[in-house]
Amino acid sequence: MDDTKNSNVGANPSSPSKKESKALMGVLAYLGPLVIVSYVMAKEDPFVKFHIKQGLVLFVIEIIVWVISSMFRSLFLFMNLVNLAVVIFSIIGILNVLQGREKELPLVGQFSHYFNF
């Protein structure tokens, strides 16, 4: 009889590791309203919290752009450029998460310090 033990016995192969979970929560932080999911699930983690704050800045910008564009149709082109910038910043943020970096986003990252939680 073989006395060796399999270390994976009872382990769920589909359950994500802590690192993968942090990455998922960080990525969700940059996907508009899904930042709420990250906030509820992982706001205690300093890495995820950093990215949640930046994602909140981008989400607030999206809301402001939506409100302004609904009031002033003449600013449609400008608002589309702002939306494009938000998408680009979100991609940069997601790449930072996937690379495990806490790097402020250009132009908007400095405003994340106003969120205290």
Give a brief rundown of this model.
The protein has helices at residues 18-28, 35-42, 46-71, 76-98. The chain has 117 residues and is an all-alpha fold.
Ordered list of secondary-structure elements with their pairings:
Elements: H1 18-28, H2 35-42, H3 46-71, H4 76-98
Helix pairs in contact: 1-2, 1-3, 2-3, 3-4
Overview of this protein structure:
By secondary structure, the protein is mostly helical. Helix content is 58%, strand content 0%. It contains 4 helices and no strands. α1 (18-28) runs parallel beside α3 and α2 runs antiparallel to α3.
Task: Note the main attributes of this structure.
117 residues, mainly alpha, 4 helices, 58% helix, disordered N terminus
